[in-house]
Amino acid sequence: MIDAHCHFWRLNHNDCTWPPPALTAIHRDFLPDDWQREADAVGVDTAIAVQSQPSDRDTEWLLQLARDDMRIAGVVGWVDLAARNAPNRIAALARNPKLRGLRPMLQDLPDDWFLQPAVAPATEAMVAHGLCFDALVRPRHLPRLLRFVERHPALRIVIDHAAKPDIAGRMLRPWRARIAALAEFPSVTCKLSGLATEAAEAWRPDDLRPYIEHLLTTFGPDRLLWGSDWPVVNLAADYSRWFGLVHDLTHLQGDTRAALFGGNAVRVYGIQE
After folding, report:
1. pTM of the predicted model, to two decimals?
2. Of 101, 116, 158, 219, which is least surrounded by CB within 10 A?
């Protein structure tokens, strides 16, 4: 089984400035051995390491971490996609077989940031090198993301954390229709990750149920990827609780369960088994 979304960081190293001290549950170093202690409890043995800092140094450190560690099947790094040298930077990084995607941190950027002409050359470079585009977006970005998908039909896009719907506010609209529109495109997949941290503090499984069921209906079990979002998940739950909740609410068995909890990540990210 593969955890399609986890993070590693060392505070005050490799440009690591997040999380802040106020997030006491996750304000310390988190490394692969820490992850393995959590993942072993549910039978997960492989991970996709996703950048947490908008930094070249962070990406280079993750790739170095992954180089000789078989637990890390791939890395989703960061590049300033609007920079003039972005295509060359992408080409250089893509020589490392562990680099499987890139993630601009869109959640805090303007809705149309990724539609600007300056980003197009980097996007085409990602297609040329077989890299996924991890879309860390919020519901307000989804109409523009739809246009982005239409412009780049050959680009594999993975929506992180289901676009962070407002679960705490019980807001299904307009997220529900917008995410369904994106699910119409076979190049788009979605991660079942990060939803607990969007719920109210004393959340219950039923609070998340309509969101997870909608994602299963629209994307189907062959285009959803389970991810822990560890260690950020510790702000709202823990590794085992999140794994068990997704297992219980999706009601999948056999091949479809295996796809959600690993097979889809292998296919989407092009992981060499």
Report:
1. 0.97
2. 116
